[in-house]
Amino acid sequence: MMAEAQAVCRSLTEDGLFINSVIKGSDNLNLIASNVN
Question: Looking at the whole model, is its pTM more than 0.90?
Answer without folding.
Answer: no
